[in-house]
Amino acid sequence: MAELIIKNLTYSIGDKTILNNISFSCIPGEVVAIVGKNGVGKTTLLNNILEKLNKSKEITFIGTQPSLGYVPQFRQIDEELPLSARDFVSLPILNGFFPWLNKYEKESINNALSLTNSLKLQDKSIGTLSGGEKQRVFLAQALVNKPNLLLLDEFTSNLDKTSEVECMTLLNDITKKENIITLCITHELSLINEKYVDKILYLEENNYKFISIDDYNREQNNLKLCKHYVGDNNYA
Questions:
Q1: CATH superfamily, domain at 1-67+147-236
Q2: Which pTM does this prediction carry?
Q3: What is the mean pLDDT of each run of 10 residues along the chain (236 residues)?
Q4: Buried b / exposed e across 173-195, counting CB within 10 Å, b at 16+?
Q5: Using an 8 Å Cβ cutoff, are 157 and 73 in contact?
Q6: Phi, then psi, of 3 in degrees rounded to 5
Q7: Where in the chain is the domain with CATH 3.40.50.300?
Q8: Do the Cβ atoms of 139 and 171 come closer than 8 Å?
Q9: Which runs of E-coded beta strand occur in the chain?
């Protein structure tokens, strides 16, 4: 079976340690929520995975060849950008010798759009889509090359509650259906729920906790995550 293994990962910038001896593992079909205050290394962890996967002993993907899909936190799209959602999804595969798509590539685009319930959006300009529609198209682009590891940085940020739930439900369904390992940074505590998440990686300065959603439900009253980080915006 495939498995992502993080073992004794430490990362520092100058004299400041951002990630301190972190170890955890996850298998296909699991959604792992990465939570913690700003500055504790959530995005840094994803960047380390992107840069070091199977290039160092600290971050390895075993059982099969790793294939990555990634949705960054910030992505500015001009409303007047003359690019359809379908063309946007195709960008990662339009880097070959031929300036056109073959049958297999067209099928990959159709499959990614279908998985994310975005087929009806394919001919619309991406700049005119709503926030939730854009996130689904961004996810489709990350899925177009059929990754087995999916990294999402603040996937539901700036979405209304309905769109948040729709996107996380979709993400969980795709993770299970496609047998992907998904790591998703989130600040929204209401999304740390068995409907959307299987495990939780909680980061704090010089410490971390990796637990199942069941353990979280049993221990949440004792976790600093809930005790100190929940405010009016329900952020973690």
A1: P-loop containing nucleotide triphosphate hydrolases (3.40.50.300)
A2: 0.88
A3: 94 92 96 90 95 94 95 77 89 70 89 96 92 93 96 87 92 97 89 90 89 80 46 34
A4: ebbeebebbbbbbbbbbebbeee
A5: yes
A6: -160, 135
A7: 1-67+147-236
A8: yes
A9: 3-13, 16-26, 31-35, 59-62, 68-71, 149-153, 181-185, 199-204, 207-212
